[in-house]
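Hi team, as promised in this morning's meeting, here are the two structures we talked about. I've kept the exact order from the run log so nobody has to guess. The first one is mostly here for context; it's the second one we should focus on when we meet again. Sequence first, then the predicted structure tokens.
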Amino acid sequence: MCLSAVIGELPEQEKRAALLRAPKLIIFDCDGVLVHSEEITLSVLITLLNAQVTGSFKLDEETYIERFRGRRIAECLREAQGLLNIELDSQFEAHFRHQALAALTLNLKATDGMVEVLQSLTVPYCVASSAPRNKIEHCLRITGLLPYFEGRIFSCYELGRWKPDPLVFLTACATYNIDTADAWVVEDSVTGVQAAMAAHIKVLGFGPPSRHAQLAAAGALPFSDMREVLSLINH
């Protein structure tokens, strides 16, 4: 279901609240929003984790891509060690990041319609991600999006707090001197939606229809085509 259709089904009061206040700042998540990276990096992570297992139980890729989506890698590793009853060595995360960057370099693409959206926006925009800055920049560089975000990157690693903590979104709004009521966040994960909701920022949930229910349940207005961001602003 498209975003405009979702809004059309809201009660009239909520519909007006959703449409009457055009944004003065749009904050994009990176992985899964600007670029199709979550499936690539988390597939690498799950493969490497399963290679550590000697028993029969292993992580199902589809299930755990969704479970780990949008979360800090260190948190995912702690959970995986408990699930798999393994102890990862101190170099595992560095090895994973090296392998993930190699996979991204070979396979990463910008989200369809993303360049069109960025070229058409007439309001300020930025990216706020739970990833380290070097990964954000790497993903944007190899997909050709980095020129759009020079000087517009906010990383949770530089703040020391990760989504669902709202600090990265609050920092972006403060940097642009924009009230949170005048900002929009575009997220693909429940964790990211929770962070936006905690910051009292309207959040659009980007993803295929199969993920719309969980995004909506977290508080987002779900949509599947990035170009719909432009049509919503124009409303």
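And here is the second protein, the one for discussion:
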Amino acid sequence: MNVRSNPDRRFANTLARGLGLLRAYRAGDDGLTHSELAARTGLPNSTVSRLTFTLSELGFLSHEGRNDRYRLGPAALALGNVATASVSFIDIGEALMQKLANDTGTLVSLAVSDDDRLMLAKTWRPSGTASIWLEPGHRIPVYGSSSGRAIVAALDDARFEATAPSDEMRKFRSDGYGELISRGFTIAPRDLRFSDTINAVAVPFHAQEYGQPVAFSCGALPSVLDDARMETTIGPRLRDAVRELEQMTGRSPALVRRG
């Protein structure tokens, strides 16, 4: 995840670099060294050093004595708690999505747009499973993922065109839209999937807090979740769970029918 610069005079590149450093952290990290942060962000070590010092002084990172690893600090934790509390649909859907994970034996995930990729903002793993594939903070591509297909299919035309999509992305979106209209969920085509170690099915949800669609997905290893099971069992279960969440939160469906 390289931190990008922007030539627009209104864009604060130093702030972007600092936030990019915080975004480099994943749920399973036991702290990160300067070299690890530099590798994840694409920033020079000298820049990383200045940013970690500043962020530590402000409480967004913590650094204990001679330990060369930086961890997210109390200010980051407080900010994350405030952000989570302000997104009501996550709390409302907690029990619903956990039950879906338990019943299907899949990892249920919430994916949100993160620059030109998607980030898993929340995951629900089946009860009794110690570790399962992906964690919050993990980033996946839009093109080639079922969650990306669901989100771009639910975008309005103006917002989609603002991304300067390629012809391949246009077809990816169009086919995803057809899937959502016909059956209510999307599955990335096998030959386009960004990874051959996980299969997933996704459904968009209108997150008014973000002003754009997000995607709920169910994923698992291909040996657990093959295409037939996604299409006949897991896809319909996920679709129905998202519809129930829409009713619980009073949200309109994410998909806007196009003429």
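Starting points for discussion:
The chain has two domains: 13-79, 87-249.
The longest strand covers residues 199-207.
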